[in-house]
Amino acid sequence: MTVLVDEEADPLYTDLPRPRATKSERKPYPTPMKTLIRRAKEDREARKSQPCSVLQEPPDNGLLVPQLVEVAHRVHRARDSLLLGVSKLIHAIPVKRCRYCFEVHIGIVGHEIRTCTGPKSGFRNATHVWRRGAIRDVIYFPNCFHLYDRVGKPRVGHDEQHTVRRVPAIIELCIQAGLDLEKYPARRRTKPVYSIEGRIVDFEPGTEMDETKAEMNCEDCSSVLEISSEINSGKAGNESNLEHAINSQGWDEVLHAELFTFG
């Protein structure tokens, strides 16, 4: 007797996603390529029609979102409370961590399941070698580079990898949302930045040297427009902007999914 099952009604009988034909085949972008090209053309036409404009929406204009400042403080306090609570639990309940892989076990004695994939695990028949665990074995916060000026200098160059400080990603997220920490200073603006031909221009001085530059820029804004147009005109500028838009999507997904990881 054959039983007919409605595949649309029962989610258990849906088709599996098609695997990639080869390992070299790239996965599709979250946003289709045609959509990215159309957006780039629309942005270019908008810059031509209005080359100088004030960015109104925070946090893109350099200002803070007022509703998120208190949220950032609550997240920071919750992180401290979480670390304090986990440290108290570890003192009472033992945690075991394999010396050669990322396997974690909660208990007095580690398990005997041979699933170790660390170095020379074949010589040990994939047996785990247990040691005492710590807080970072239960909950892990990945690090990232700290940005002093997230709008004026949003990128960290390769040559700056040893000079720019690294902080936990959850802390950097709170700092950029409005949390002020003395150890990690960040620039706070009181006026929105300008967008001139797609380039971010800041007329608010941050230091005494920037104050002189701001006065010169305010006296003759037309020269800034001419220089900015010269820098951004041509094929290379458009391609670099589009390439940045494509490459940044992977970073966005990682930041949303991996701000912290539980062991």
How would you describe what is shown here?
Helix content is 40%, strand content 11%. It starts with 32 loop residues before the first helix and ends with a strand. The chain contains seven helices and ten strands. The chain has a domain at 49-64 and 189-224. The strands form four sheets. The protein has a three-stranded antiparallel sheet. Strands 3-2-4 form a three-stranded antiparallel sheet, with no helix packed on it. A two-stranded antiparallel ribbon has the order 5-10. The model is unreliable at 207-253 (pLDDT under 50). It is α+β, with helices and mostly antiparallel strands. A hairpin with a 2-residue loop joins strand 8 (194-196) and strand 9 (199-201). Residues 97-183 form the APO domain. This is APO domain-containing protein. Residues 1-10 have a biased composition (Acidic residues).
Fill in the keyword field for this structure.
alpha+beta, 3-stranded antiparallel β-sheet, APO_dom, RNA binding, APO domain-containing protein
